[in-house]
Every structure is written in structure tokens, then in C-alpha cells.
């Protein structure tokens, strides 16, 4: 078994789809009820058993760094007031995982952002999670992926059914069923039109890569939108090693768009009002 302990969370983009809300507040800091999206992602990673988390930020996204850092004045205030519950909730995250901040100084695409984590990965396999793709299921999405990777040692990505009209929003895979909810990825295309999309299976924001991904990114030329796409790096990887896909069972929200954010907020708010209750529902498409 090849264990994967490290996860990268790219959070360095401009968040143009969430403007104007994301102008001064990074989109990853927009709240899902009482927690910012970045914390929801970090908690999913911790629940999945990752203990080394690398958050890739742009230099101006100091709010993300601040969110996970100590805040002596606030903590002293809460201690004085006897609010140990709040104090503990602020400190808990820091105690559960080591969070490292990595900078992407030029916004050259998701693949380029991931490449900023090469030193952090230090030759080990590494997971990647897009914090604006929010999953809600009985088990953490990243945990399902981690288990699949550790069983095979092969690069594994999360697949989900998307509508024909949604292919322009995602990486789309051509696959071969491999049994037990697993697929072998034969090809991936970034944001194809519906007429050229190879299937209705999107590659949706969760990945576990072997360390070969970094060489593949280095060789990746700008693609869709003139950016260095992780999808194109996966395409290079496909020529070198097998890549697997797993279908996630649970709900997914694309919180990087206003519509998806509203859906995610409403779902998490309803859950909160019911007092928890994870895991109902089916894959959203
Ligand atoms: C990125 C990836 C895309 C993937 C999507 C999932 O796109 O490039 O392949 O399907 O995340 O959330 P973005 O949403 O950054 O445009």
C-alpha cells in the first residue's frame, strides 16, 4: 500500500466568477453558513485522514493565511469571557493538521498552481482539492479517493455525471468501466463543447496524483483560456501511467459560481437547521 498524507488546496485564483463578492474577500473565504469554504475543504481533508495540508495562495490573499493563524487579541478576549467553546473551535483546526502556505505569484492556471506544491510533496504522492467544489456525503469525498489510490498506487480522480449543457464548465473524461464503481481514464479534455465532449463524466475537483504529475505539468503548454491546465497534465500522465476514476456517491456543489454557491449555502443551512444529518441525497448533475 502506498500511503498518501499530503494534500494541496489551490486557492490563488482571482475568483472572477464570484465577483463582486470576491473582490476584497477571497472567494475561498465566502461562508458556507458559519465556515468559510477553505475551512470546509480543510475539514474534509482532515476527516479523510490527511495531516499535511498545503494551501496555495496568491500574495494578496492574506485573509486565508489569517484565518488559520493565531489571533492573540481575539483569543485573549474569548478566554476572559469564558467562551472556551469558541476558543476551542478556533484552535482545533490548527491542532489537527499542519498547514503550510505556498505562493503562486502569477495566475497561470490550475496546473501551474499545483506545480507550486512540488517541494511540499517532496517526491510523495499528493492529493489536490479545489475548495470551490463542495461535496457532501456520508464519507468525505477525498477519503474515498485516498482509499482507491492506496489500494492501487495509481493516480485517481473523482468523476461525476454532468449534464450535456455543462461540459463547457469542467474537464470531461473518456473512460472504460473497470468494475466496482471504478473507471480507467482513457482521455480527458478541458471544457469541451457538448458536441465534442467524450462523455457525461466530469473530472470534478478531487485528485490523488503520483509524484509523476510534476514532470507532466512542467511539460504542459498553455491550453484552454491560455492557462496551464491540470487536465492537460493528466493527459500527458495518461501516456505514462494508468489513471483511474471513481464515482462519488453524494451531493456536489460548484460553489465557484453564484448559482452553485446559493445551492450549497441553502443545503448546508438546511442541514444546520435540522442539526446535522449528513449524507442524504444523490449525486447532483
Ligand atoms: C477546474 C478544472 C476542471 C474541473 C473543475 C472542477 O476548473 O480546470 O477540469 O472540472 O475545476 O471543479 P475551474 O472550475 O477552475 O474553471
Whole-number average pLDDT?
A: 93
Question: What fraction strand?
Answer: 25-35%
C-alpha Rg (nearest Å): 18 Å
CATH class: Alpha Beta
Distance between the termini: 33 Å
| Tally of DSSP β-strands | 13
CATH architecture annotation:
Alpha-Beta Complex
Order of strands, main sheet, comes to: 8-11-9-10-12
State the fourth-level CATH superfamily.
Spore Coat Polysaccharide Biosynthesis Protein SpsA, Chain A
Q: What bound compounds does this protein have?
A: 1-O-phosphono-alpha-D-glucopyranose
Q: How many helices does DSSP assign?
A: 10
Order of helices and strands: EEEHEHHHEHHEEHEEEEHHEEH
| Percentage of residues assigned to helices | 25-40%
Uncertain spans: 277-285
Q: Assign the CATH topology.
A: Spore Coat Polysaccharide Biosynthesis Protein SpsA, Chain A
For the largest beta-sheet, the strand count, sense and barrel status come to: 5 strands, mixed, barrel
Which class of secondary structure composition applies to the elements?
Answer: alpha/beta
Structurally, the number of domains stands at 1
Globular, elongated, flat, extended or rod-shaped: what is the shape? globular
Please provide a written account of the structure.
The chain contains ten helices and 13 strands. With 285 residues, the chain is α/β, with parallel strands linked by helices. The protein has one domain: Spore Coat Polysaccharide Biosynthesis Protein SpsA, Chain A (Alpha-Beta Complex), CATH 3.90.550.10. Strand 9 and strand 10 form a beta hairpin. It is globular and about 60 Å long. It binds 1-O-phosphono-alpha-D-glucopyranose. The site of 1-O-phosphono-alpha-D-glucopyranose has 14 residues, from strand 11 and helix 9.
Amino acid at each position: 500500500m502506498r500511503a498518501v498524507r499530503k494534500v494541496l488546496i489551490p486557492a490563488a485564483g482571482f475568483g472572477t466568477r464570484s465577483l463582486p463578492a470576491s473582490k476584497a474577500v477571497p472567494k475561498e473565504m465566502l461562508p458556507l453558513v458559519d465556515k468559510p469554504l477553505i475551512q470546509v475543504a480543510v475539514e474534509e481533508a482532515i476527516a479523510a485522514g490527511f495531516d499535511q495540508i498545503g494551501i496555495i495562495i496568491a500574495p494578496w490573499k492574506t485573509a486565508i493565511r489569517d484565518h488559520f493563524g493565531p489571533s492573540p487579541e481575539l483569543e485573549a478576549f474569548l478566554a476572559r469571557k469564558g467562551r472556551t467553546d469558541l476558543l476551542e473551535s478556533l484552535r482545533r483546526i490548527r491542532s489537527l493538521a499542519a498547514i503550510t502556505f505556498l505562493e503562486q505569484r502569477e495566475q497561470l492556471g490550475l496546473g501551474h498552481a499545483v506545480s507550486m506544491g512540488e517541494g511540499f510533496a517532496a517526491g510523495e504522492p499528493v492529493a489536490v482539492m479545489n475548495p470551490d467544489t463542495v461535496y457532501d456525503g456520508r464519507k468525505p469525498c477525498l477519503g474515498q479517493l485516498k482509499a482507491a489510490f492506496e489500494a492501487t498506487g495509481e493516480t485517481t480522480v473523482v468523476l461525476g455525471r454532468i449534464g450535456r449543457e455543462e461540459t463547457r464548465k469542467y474537464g470531461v473524461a473518456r473512460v472504460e468501466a473497470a468494475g466496482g464503481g471504478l473507471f480507467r481514464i482513457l482521455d480527458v479534455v478541458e471544457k469541451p463543447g457538448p458536441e465534442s465532449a467524450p462523455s457525461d463524466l466530469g473530472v470534478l475537483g478531487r485528485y490523488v496524483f503520483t509524484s509523476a504529475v510534476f514532470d507532466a505539468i512542467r511539460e504542459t503548454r498553455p491550453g484552454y483560456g491560455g492557462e496551464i491546465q491540470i487536465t492537460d497534465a493528466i493527459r500527458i500522465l495518461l501516456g505514462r501511467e494508468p489513471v483511474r476514476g471513481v464515482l462519488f456517491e453524494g451531493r456536489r456543489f460548484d460553489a465557484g459560481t453564484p448559482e452553485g454557491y446559493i445551492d450549497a449555502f441553502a443545503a448546508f443551512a438546511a442541514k444546520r437547521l435540522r442539526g446535522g444529518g449528513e449524507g442524504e441525497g444523490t449525486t447532483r448533475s
